Amino acid sequence: MVTRKKCMGAPLFIILLLFFAGCIYTVKQCAAPPKEAEEAVTLVAGFSREDGSPLGGNTVRLSSETGGTDYPLDEGGEARITGLPQCGELLLTVLDAQGQAVGTITLVLGQGAVIDATTGGDGVGYITLRKDTDVIALSFSLLEGGSLRCGLRLA
Hints:
- By secondary structure, the chain is mainly β.
- It has a six-stranded mixed β-sheet with strand order 3-2-5-6-8-7, with no helix packed on it. Strands 4-1-9-10 form a four-stranded mixed β-sheet, with no helix packed on it.
- The model is unreliable at 23-28 and 31-38 (pLDDT under 50).
- It has one helix spanning 2-22, and strands at 41-49, 59-64, 67-72, 78-84, 88-95, 101-111, 116-119, 125-129, 135-142, 148-152.
- Strand 2 and strand 3 form a beta hairpin.
- The longest helix has 21 residues, at 2-22.
- The protein is globular and about 70 Å long.
């Protein structure tokens, strides 16, 4: 009887251990923005509407606590943005030809074991970079309500 209880308890303990091990947070939080040029990231980004048509001719504004910079989109809705930090928070705003905001997303950059980009249920874009990442390709889709969805561009 006692042996049978021990045999039932061991698998339950292992299952709970595996469950909690899977919930460990693996993204490194960064205390300060990078100071060295080799820690800067280049973002190659494509911007499109929800139906897939490019947002060509618009402008993308990246803002942080230290200020903001505008980047024009080419006719294919693409931009190459250099000098981004590997860690931190940025506000990305898409502006139309008249300079009016048509979409925004907060981007949270952090370091981890893999490269990934996704939009959380809270509408925030979470971008995970490996420490050796210097270029990342993302796609942004403008939704009807003015929010943006981001993802890793694999092609």
